């Protein structure tokens, strides 16, 4: 694992790179360059993190060779049966993985660990609940939602009749607007969850609204799943009909997705994943997800997530002290958005300048953003990755001051243009 200075306490990556370089010098050299970039940069992208060597090893194990279309023959819920022989070992791992995730979130929901990504989890979740042409009420990408929450360029915006609820003048989800639009449009599905929202999401209130209009309620907790697991954010379980997530953000696992659903939806969920959306599952990634679930049940993980939240609050407060505008005025979780509309440069300009200075973040739209998506008037920053590497509050305050120096330099450059 990398520490805050970039030193790796393990030789796992170095040995892997040497092995790859022997077989493919071209691929090996670029993996090595990426490894060096990750070691030397301050990683602030809110959707990225560092997983353990054990998870990396599972993802690169002999399970990569095994095809296993279908589901384990013995399961607690959902569809059963494979379309290939020789699955007795991966069956054990996959069902164990499901059981461990139930323990992580203290739920009796059905679990499907086969989705290859969060987007594919959402694709299957929609299919399990509604049909093309049905109405979905969700948070727009401009206000902090995800592509799969109705963007016009995504399957969700093309297959479904999307209606969006707004945020208020302070950037908070406008629950009164949710109520009004739910009553007006009578959606088949209401979606809560976001990729760039820094406040607590009121799942219970959403569930009450969905119940009143006869809609299903789905939560995409991809970003905050680790906070939910550690008790740092209210749980959607017991309120949502379906919960989707990724495993590689605050959960610190392999890249992949999962779907949780009320027991009565088990077969619909499984059929929507396979055979509707996917073929064979990635059993090597599922093994990594199982290890991730074990790690998420350890006391050290709860301590880690608590520090993620403390670090994010300190990071945000430092920007506020320096006079920056933060969407919603603060943060309750692992990320926040800087609103740069008072500056002449764009979020993309700041992203590039930070890249040159060894700080990785991403441009991001802010509510009512006047700039196009490839430019944006904001940037998104998060604390999960660097907290894994040992950063504490003062480390993030210093990063804020470094970014401030970059901003001041950009202000000077754009003033001269």
From TrEMBL:
Modified residues (N6-(pyridoxal phosphate)lysine): 249
Pathway(s) of this molecule: One-carbon metabolism; tetrahydrofolate interconversion; Amino-acid biosynthesis; glycine biosynthesis; glycine from L-serine: step 1/1
Any single GO CC term annotated in Swiss-Prot or TrEMBL for this entry: cytosol
GO biological process: one example: methylation
Listed cofactors: pyridoxal 5'-phosphate
SUPFAM superfamilies per UniProt: PLP-dependent transferases
Location, primary (coarse class): cytoplasm
Entries under InterPro entries matching the protein: EF_Hand_1_Ca_BS, PyrdxlP-dep_Trfase, PyrdxlP-dep_Trfase_major, PyrdxlP-dep_Trfase_small, Ser_HO-MeTrfase, Ser_HO-MeTrfase-like, Ser_HO-MeTrfase_PLP_BS, SHMT-like_dom
Entry's EC annotation: 2.1.2.1
Functional description taken from the UniProt entry: Catalyzes the reversible interconversion of serine and glycine with tetrahydrofolate (THF) serving as the one-carbon carrier. This reaction serves as the major source of one-carbon groups required for the biosynthesis of purines, thymidylate, methionine, and other important biomolecules. Also exhibits THF-independent aldolase activity toward beta-hydroxyamino acids, producing glycine and aldehydes, via a retro-aldol mechanism. Thus, is able to catalyze the cleavage of L-allo-threonine.
Similarity annotation: Belongs to the SHMT family.
Protein name per the record: Serine hydroxymethyltransferase
Organism: Eubacterium pyruvativorans
Lineage: Bacteria, Bacillati, Bacillota, Clostridia, Eubacteriales
């Amino acid at each position: 694992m990398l520490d805050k200075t970039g030193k790796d306490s393990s030789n796992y990556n170095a040995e892997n790179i040497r092995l790859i370089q022997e077989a493919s010098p071209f691929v090996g050299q670029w993996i090595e360059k990426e490894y060096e970039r990750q070691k030397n940069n301050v990683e602030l992208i809110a959707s990225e993190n560092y997983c353990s060597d054990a998870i990396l090893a599972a993802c690169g194990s002999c399970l990569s060779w095994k095809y296993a279309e279908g589901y384990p023959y013995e399961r607690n819920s959902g569809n059963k049966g494979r379309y290939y022989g020789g699955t007795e070992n991966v069956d054990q791992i996959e069902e164990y993985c499901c059981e461990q995730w139930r323990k992580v979130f203290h739920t009796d929901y059905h679990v499907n660990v086969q989705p290859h990504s969060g987007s594919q989890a959402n694709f299957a979740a929609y299919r399990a609940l509604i049909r093309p042409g049905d109405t979905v009420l969700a948070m727009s990408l401009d206000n902090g939602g995800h592509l799969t929450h109705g963007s016009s360029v995504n399957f969700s915006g093309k297959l479904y009749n999307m209606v969006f609820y707004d945020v208020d003048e302070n950037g908070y989800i406008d629950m009164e607007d949710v109520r009004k639009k739910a009553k007006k449009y009578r959606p088949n599905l209401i979606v809560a969850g976001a990729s760039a929202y820094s406040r607590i999401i009121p799942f219970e209130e959403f569930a009450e609204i969905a119940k009143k209009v006869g809609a299903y309620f789905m939560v995409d907790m991809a970003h905050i799943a680790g906070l939910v697991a550690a008790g740092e954010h209210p749980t959607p379980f017991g309120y949502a009909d379906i919960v989707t997530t990724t495993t590689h953000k605050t959960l610190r696992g392999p890249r992949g997705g999962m779907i949780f659903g009320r027991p009565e939806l088990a077969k619909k969920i499984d059929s929507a994943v396979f055979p509707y959306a996917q073929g064979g599952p990635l059993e090597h990634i599922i093994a990594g997800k199982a290890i991730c679930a074990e790690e998420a049940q350890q006391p050290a993980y709860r301590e880690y997530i608590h520090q993620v939240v403390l670090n994010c609050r300190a990071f945000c407060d430092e920007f506020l002290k320096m006079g920056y505008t933060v969407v919603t005025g603060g943060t309750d979780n692992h990320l926040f958005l800087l609103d740069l509309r008072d500056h002449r440069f764009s979020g993309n300009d700041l992203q590039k300048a930070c890249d040159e200075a060894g700080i990785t973040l991403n441009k991001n739209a802010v509510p009512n953003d006047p700039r196009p998506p490839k430019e944006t008037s904001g940037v998104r920053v998060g604390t999960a990755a660097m907290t894994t590497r040992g950063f504490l509050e003062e480390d993030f305050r210093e990063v804020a001051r470094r970014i401030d120096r970059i901003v001041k330099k950009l202000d000077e450059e754009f003033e001269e243009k």
